[in-house]
Amino acid sequence: MLFLWALALILVLQEQDLLAAADPVSMLPGSLGRGSWCNEHDTIHKRLDIIEEKVIKTVEHLESEVKSLLNIISETTSNIPIAPGTPLIDIFDDTS
Question: What is the pLDDT of residue 28?
Answer without folding.
Answer: 52
